[in-house]
Amino acid sequence: MSDNDGLRHRGPSKANDTVKPVNSNPAQRIQKDDDGPGISLLDILRILLTLVILSCALSYYLTPTSSLIWGYSAWFTNPKAVVQYFQGPVVLTLEELSQYNGTDFSRPIYLAINSTIFDVSASPQTYGPGGSYSVFAGRDATRAFVTGCFADDTTSDLRGAEEIYLPVEDVEDEGLSSGEKKVRAERERREARRRVRGEVEHWVQFYKGNAKYFEVGRVVQETKEDEGPPPVLCEVAQKGRPKRSKMNSGKNKKQAAPGKPVQ
User: Fold this and answer.
1) Domain range holding 118?
2) Is 121 found in the same domain as 59?
3) Which of 73, 90, 150, 225 is within CB 3.0–4.6 Å of 157 for a Cys-Cys bond?
4) Mean pLDDT by 10 residues, the chain (263 residues)
């Protein structure tokens, strides 16, 4: 047998049997390379939980009240407020509201401002019997929040309360005509009434934003308090009024009400 016959009958090489075709599709190669564990939903939850814990820790050490939520006072963090929410708002007359003045320990302490009732039971030393602001308990004393006359103005009647911001006319000759003085007086009274509304809204927001207190309902008046002559401005408020002479000289242009912040 010749060498050529031996070469013709030799079987195919084993190396050729193990060679795999090369994948010439670049997109399939990239997809195969990208296949891996990735980020799971559990990993995302772990990251979010870590951020929340870090935020609470920073808030606790950086806020003056050691708050875990950066001083934010949500109503639902107060258990009593949550219970009241599910019970629904209370509707009381002024006579019924007077029963919630702190003398009956089985009842909460309520006060009202601009007909909105707030539960202030968290501060019995302030609003309860003998407290520094017990005059507000069981009443809608909106006027007193503006004038600062806690003993005299325990009413919601705001008629004439703007007088506290109007100047006392202590200048005889300003060189203005009667018409000019009338226009000025009307402008100043409109501004004074705007400031009264702003003062009332300030206190409403104070109680709404305080973590210790919460809104419970509304006052309904069986008789209108704004009937008859308006209340007279009390002596303390009268003394706190600005003087025209000082206003003309650049002083007391922004006279504040004499009332004190209620805690």
Assistant:
1) 74-170+178-248
2) no
3) 225
4) 52 52 55 62 90 86 69 61 73 95 94 96 95 95 93 92 92 84 93 96 93 92 75 90 83 50 47
